[in-house]
């Protein structure tokens, strides 16, 4: 009866405190148990959390519906905290060292999947606009999922990881531009070079502006707070800073996750970064699993019985994987594990689902094509964690940049 009540409450989108608490129990326990099981069989915990979402989702137990407002909000806070934490762990200097490689990977990782996805969709009988949406969905990279896996493996400081992280962030910015352009076309608006240029300038200019202004204001501000407040005050104010940057990012047409990552980059070089990171990590233990469970819950496994859906989905999966793996080999001068870069760019996650959901709600996509895109998102999202684990075995602690790799990267300039 408890399961039935929770399911009904979730479907209606309004629930009392007891139902809400039960929902949290189901999410956190399933995520923790399956995350532990995934680690026991040698896989990253995030894979178990994604499976937990599929089990709890509407197509199976029906307890978690990511479309319910409270679940969506909790998941959004989770991904914001995750990207903020990743930004805190990222050395901007090292990220800039791989800037050229990241840019090349990102650009190739957008152009190849988009072109291949569009051509495959047209070849399988889809119209122009559905094919455009399909191609756009293939350009995405879920930085949250890849970053979490690399962090769990203790590999976040490796040059391959830094390239993936930088490229994924650029991918998300380009994805925002594509999303805005596609939305305008589907809305019947006229597409001009000026509107595309303005959208692009806002997306990239926001990150540069936050880094420039934040580096001037934030360090002295937090030094003052450290003198007059306690350690937990620093962590609280850091969260407030991250949230306001996310708010500004959304207000200017960028994305919350871009704002969160930029806020982490600003605070990373300060002497208070470890204290802040500790506070964020504790809070993330609650919110971050909710995000991954929500991503898994968005998958409707019942739609995969249609042969046409499987045909379109299978074709899109092939080009989705090949496009991103090929992008990993684009920086030909880099001597590290290029396959790791390609696999790291592979998961589409929630970003790909946003494209697919936009196409469905505007009527551009049929439910069958939407299911095919969902299948592509699901497979690429679920394949990446175990493949990264196999290609990039975990280490006891985050690795330092290898001297030889540093030498390779600095030759880019």
Q: What does this protein structure show overall?
A:
The structure is a single chain. This protein has helices at 2-12, 17-40, 45-56, 69-89, 92-97, 99-123, 128-138, 143-152, 159-186, 193-228, 231-251, 256-267, 273-297, 307-328, 338-344, 349-361, 367-391, 403-410. By secondary structure, it is mainly alpha-helical. The chain has one domain (76-291, 303-410): Na+/H+ antiporter like fold (Up-down Bundle), CATH 1.20.1530.20. The radius of gyration is 21 Å and the shape is globular.
Tell me the number of strands: 0
Beta content comes to under 5%
> How many distinct domains?
1
Poorly predicted sequence stretches spanning 5 or more consecutive residues? 397-413
Q: What overall geometry do the principal axes of the alpha carbons give?
A: globular
The CATH architecture classification is Up-down Bundle
N-to-C order of helices and strands: HHHHHHHHHHHHHHHHHH
Cα end-to-end separation: 64 Å
Computed CA radius of gyration, to the nearest angstrom: 21 Å
